[in-house]
Amino acid sequence: MIEDKNQQRTPLSELGEFALIEHLTKQFEIKQVSTVKGIGDDAAVLNFENKKIVVTTDLLVENVHFDLSYMPLKHLGYKAIMVNLSDVYAMNATATQVTVSIAVSNRFPLEALEDLYSGIQTAAKIYNVDLIGGDTTSSTTGLLISVTAIGEVESDNEVYRSGAKPNDLLVVSGDLGAAYMGLQVLEREKEVYKVNPNSQPDLESYSYIIERQLKPEARKDIIKLLKDLDVKPTSMIDVSDGLSSEILHLCKQSNVGCDVYEEKIPLDPQVIATCEEFNIDSTTVALNGGEDYELLFSISQEDFPKIKANPNFTIIGYMADKNSGMHLVTRAGSKIPLKAQGWKNFSS
Amino acid sequence: MIEDKNQQRTPLSELGEFALIEHLTKQFEIKQVSTVKGIGDDAAVLNFENKKIVVTTDLLVENVHFDLSYMPLKHLGYKAIMVNLSDVYAMNATATQVTVSIAVSNRFPLEALEDLYSGIQTAAKIYNVDLIGGDTTSSTTGLLISVTAIGEVESDNEVYRSGAKPNDLLVVSGDLGAAYMGLQVLEREKEVYKVNPNSQPDLESYSYIIERQLKPEARKDIIKLLKDLDVKPTSMIDVSDGLSSEILHLCKQSNVGCDVYEEKIPLDPQVIATCEEFNIDSTTVALNGGEDYELLFSISQEDFPKIKANPNFTIIGYMADKNSGMHLVTRAGSKIPLKAQGWKNFSS
């Protein structure tokens, strides 16, 4: 579906491991003052002075987390960084460094890895993180990317999943379900392509949801905005596995219950239209789709004036006493228990 | 060759991803004061106060870096940690935390991963590092382990590859070539086993070299010893790809030459005996074998009295002016240029 227009194919075997890493990373710049030494020694050296640091890691595996038949390698590199930065921001921290390791089979030429690293570099530049290390190795099959992201946070500014209190407001950034519906469109087009490789799909009306799937953005801007608004969430998590699963994490770790209002869940019009086309319930998609990389957080009621009417935020419910349970209040007004279906077991 | 005596086989599909991580890591304790929050949130939170931190990462891939037909999973878990800690120590730092991510195919039952994590736990306990995060995912084939290790170092105590000066002494800890010869023995026994699965190999006389291959130790003790002796190396690297390759790294990054004396290269008697048995030159094995995880470093001549006659160290040569080149001085007294053959291109 995505045509490879790059005709040059340099076998990886032409370069040794050291030469490969050097080749792929030579255009990366070091910009963080906390990076004392990046790539090129046994380990990177960092200096955060009195700040706390946060560390998170994620593994992306071909044909488990991504499908190269519709995921361009450049976007994959970008997304691999986003997935990790999103976790850093979910701690209310600033992302500062990443390490990227890849295992890759011989079917990939050097030019493919250059595309992957160009996406990584774009992400590093836009999000102002330094690439400080990594490992490159061969794999018997496919492509695997392991990213570790590091961030810094002023002492006592970090936000855990565990700090929500009853009556806190539950807030989410952006909108939900788009990445999942983008995936549905891409999967459908892949099937069409299999039958007729000459078909030219018109994806214009799905541009937003496809971009949310192929090129998600981690919400660095939200962390800055919260700081500017002088709001420190009482708990926070990023929405990677679906809103429902993340709400349950916050509630369980904070030892509270919650009421979430179906009618408040923010949906883009393209999500609603595509859900209608696919005959899928949009609330189910928002609750269980995942890969939104939005931030879900709770705030104390007294911070309500600071965020109210801000278009970046939607208040979708409130935390409650643990004994009252975790519920979705439907448009019809009935209360149903929230369940974590997650991405893998999703069925409409 | 290694018989699986564990008859219980719980399919991984019985546990979800969260349950799997929780199950595998629940017995891990947090001991470092710098670990503010370990596993269980979007990211770990660390506080190093005024120390610098070092970060390193390595990827181990089945049938590229290890062969499960003779590598027990428990040892593999241990070795995956050692490989990374060795890089931390090579910065003259103390290892404090690790993250471990694994991609695993369905052919592994839960009990296999428990074995792997029990090796990781043993390593974490002995080397006093906290497991603070990771990711667990399925893979289409085989097992892949991605470890990121973090360490701390007092400001200005870190040692790079780049600080060696002409006339500095070149020193190595322990002995070399054993892990490589251990691998040769294991590979031979694997072939014998293929022909006759009932053969009972007598590996008694290879115990040291096999242990060096299957259960290497990172030289935490050497970092402590150097501190106790008040010696700060001018440059340092760990020996993972072979002595020759590592010497060239130090020389190139320090902009110096060197003379290394063949007769000084430390070899265990078992290495010498096994090399004779396999008809391989032991110097070639020491120079190019790799996986020794010893520390190679340069010290100023004035520190010579502090390390002389210490059985942990062997002075194998000295740094020279860049223009004089990098040479091995053979037992016969001739000078031959040092080359990095590394592990992969090794041939006797």
Description:
The structure is a homodimer of 348-residue chains. By secondary structure, chain A is of the alpha+beta class. Chain A has two domains: 12-153, 60s Ribosomal Protein L30, Chain: A (2-Layer Sandwich), CATH 3.30.1330.10; 169-337, Alpha-Beta Complex (Phosphoribosyl-aminoimidazole Synthetase, Chain A, domain 2). Helix content of chain A is 32%, strand content 23%. The first copy, chain A, has ten helices and 14 strands. Chain A has helices at residues 17-25, 73-89, 110-127, 178-195, 207-214, 220-228, 243-254, 269-278, 282-288, 304-307; strands at 35-37, 44-46, 52-61, 94-104, 130-133, 136-138, 143-153, 169-173, 235-239, 257-261, 294-299, 313-320, 326-329, 335-337. In chain A, the strands form three sheets. In chain A, strands 9-11-8-12-10-13-14 form a seven-stranded mixed beta sheet, sandwiched between helices. In chain A, strands 3, 4, 5, 6 and 7 form a five-stranded mixed beta sheet that branches. In chain A, strand 1 (35-37) and strand 2 form a beta hairpin. The longest helix of chain A is centred in the middle third of the chain and has 18 residues, at 110-127. Chain A is globular and about 65 Å long. The two termini of chain A are 26 Å apart. Residues 342-348 of chain A have low confidence and may be disordered. The interface between A and B is large, with 65 and 64 residues. Strand 3 (52-61) of chain A pairs antiparallel with strand 2 (44-46) of chain B, so a sheet runs across the interface.
